[in-house]
From TrEMBL, chain B:
GO terms for cellular component: dimethyl sulfoxide reductase complex; plasma membrane. One of its GO terms (molecular function) is dimethyl sulfoxide reductase activity. This is Dimethyl sulfoxide reductase. GO terms for biological process: anaerobic electron transport chain. It comes from the Bacteria.
Length: 184, 289
């Protein structure tokens, strides 16, 4: 039994095609304007360059969304996936304010918020998350976060400073990021 | 997302105004018992109590407008075990009950002065507790340095004290203006309350300014807050006008209804601007990543 699932993002191969984002959207049939996975772009001028981080929910060890939600919509499964009971949501948007990674998204038409559930139903059927399966460059990997961390122990603090990511100590996200430009 | 979160602005400001007014009224009853003993004065307090109850109820209802699915509002207490928003919902539900009982006691059972005073005291404490629970909602968000600080609690309490003490001081001054009788002084405790509110609010503004020396999101929040025209109105309408009201009432001790209404509106609008800054300082940074 996996203690905690998580994602690995290998920035070295990502060229910003956003296939993962679109695959997620079509798999989950999210409404207009609601993207559970987004590809953030970073530009540098010394030297000129671009980098991309594809990110959705990080199924944190200390999920801030779960803490603040007044309707108790979030729960953490035994395999670490943070899932939302969408019917219970009252659209207060507290989870959006609290999540350091902007993972939950509000749909003004429905008046509710939703977020990535790591394709829990697909996992339960033994399939991979749709984003992981769809990435043409193999940038996204998924699995037991302990295994992923063993395979590549990138220093999150260094990446946070470089790409102005939120401090991982706030929610302890389950993500491994291999920065662009890192040697094998 | 709306960066000003107006329903939350009006909910918090109106309810804090109501609580501050109850505190200031309790202070007035304590330092000038004549307000409890003299019929015409007590009648002022009775109608003021009803107005305060109305402000608290309207403010509480406005919070519902913040919800995307207001019909599910009853589910907002399911997270009581971990969510400060759930606790805020319960706190304001209870506060409305307490304020209702308080207003009923002031309005109906005016012969029992001791009861009025003790219920006012209890309502004041309940109000302060509810305000602190509100502040915890924002304090709980560890990823926003502008909210995750005790300055949030100070900000909310400062708003209550400033608005409440200005309201009751102006009420006394208008009463004295209408009586054409030899005028007593406005109680020093009320004027001190106004100045305390100004001072605490000034502390909050200074803390925002200090934020530009911070790091990351705090710097961006501080720049957004300080660079906004709303800050100018908070300083002029809240800090400067508040100080002028206290000084004027110290010297003059009466004011016309029109004058009092204008001053009240200026200070109230400054408090609204201050609260808009509180929300926009964080929400204008969205997405934070
Ligand atoms: S990334 Fe955000 S939404 Fe996902 S578990 Fe962490 S705090 Fe919650
Ligand atoms: S928007 Fe919905 S899921 Fe998010 S905190 Fe509010 S009730 Fe919970």
């Amino acid at each position: 039994m996996v203690r905690q699932y998580g994602f690995l993002v290998d920035m070295r191969g990502c060229y910003g095609c956003k296939t993962c984002s679109m695959a997620c959207k079509s798999e989950n049939a999210t409404p207009t304007g609601v993207l559970w996975r987004r590809v953030r772009e970073f530009t540098f001028d010394d030297p000129n360059g671009m980098a991309f981080i594809s990110m959705s929910c990080n199924h944190c060890d200390d999920p801030q969304c779960m803490k603040v939600c007044p309707a108790d919509t979030y729960s953490k499964r035994p395999d670490g996936i943070v899932v939302q009971d969408h019917d219970k949501c009252i659209g207060c948007r507290m989870c959006i304010m609290a999540c350091p990674y902007n993972a939950p998204v509000f749909d003004p038409v429905e008046g509710k918020t939703s977020k990535c559930n790591l394709c829990a139903e697909r996992l339960d059927e033994g399939l991979k998350p749709r984003c992981v399966e769809s990435c043409p460059a193999g940038v996204l990997q998924f699995g037991d976060i302990d295994e992923l961390r063993k395979r590549y122990s990138a220093d999150l603090s260094r990446i946070e400073t470089h790409y102005k990511l939120p401090d991982h100590n706030i929610s302890h996200p389950n993500i491994v990021i291999i920065p662009a430009g890192d040697k094998e | 997302m709306s960066e000003y979160e107006l329903p939350l602005v009006f909910f918090t400001v109106l309810c804090q105004w109501a609580v501050g007014s109850i505190i200031a009224m309790t202070a007035l009853m304590t330092v000038q018992p004549i307000w409890l003993n003299e019929e015409t004065r007590f009648n002022r307090l009775r109608y003021m109590a009803l107005a305060i109850l109305a402000i608290n109820i309207v403010g509480s209802f406005l919070s519902l407008l913040h919800l995307g699915s207001p019909l599910g509002a009853y589910r907002a207490i399911l997270g009581l075990g971990h969510s400060w928003l759930s606790r805020e919902v319960v706190a304001f539900f209870l506060l409305n009950g307490v304020v209702f009982i308080w207003a009923a006691v002031v309005f109906r059972f005016n012969r029992n002065r001791a009861l009025v005073k003790s219920v006012s005291f209890v309502a004041s404490l309940a109000g302060i507790a509810a305000i602190l629970v509100s502040a915890q909602v924002y304090y709980q968000m560890a990823s926003h340095p502008m909210w995750h600080t005790l300055i949030t609690h100070l900000n909310f309490i400062a708003t209550a004290i400033l608005l409440g003490f200005v309201t009751i001081s102006l009420m006394v001054a208008v009463y004295q203006y209408r009586q054409h009788a030899p005028q007593g002084k406005i109680p020093g405790l009320l004027l001190t309350g106004i100045l305390l509110g100004v001072l605490l609010m000034f502390w909050v503004v200074l803390w925002y300014s200090h934020g530009v020396n911070g790091q990351g999101q705090m710097v961006r929040s501080a720049i957004a807050v300080l660079g906004s025209g709303l800050m100018g109105w908070l300083i002029f309408g809240g800090l400067i006008t508040g100080t002028c009201v206290a000084t004027y009432l110290y010297k003059q001790s009466s004011i016309s209804m029109v004058g009092a209404t204008v001053l009240m509106l200026v200070i109230l609008s400054a408090a609204v601007c201050g609260r808009m800054l509180f929300y926009s300082g964080v929400m204008s940074q969205s997405p934070w990543f």
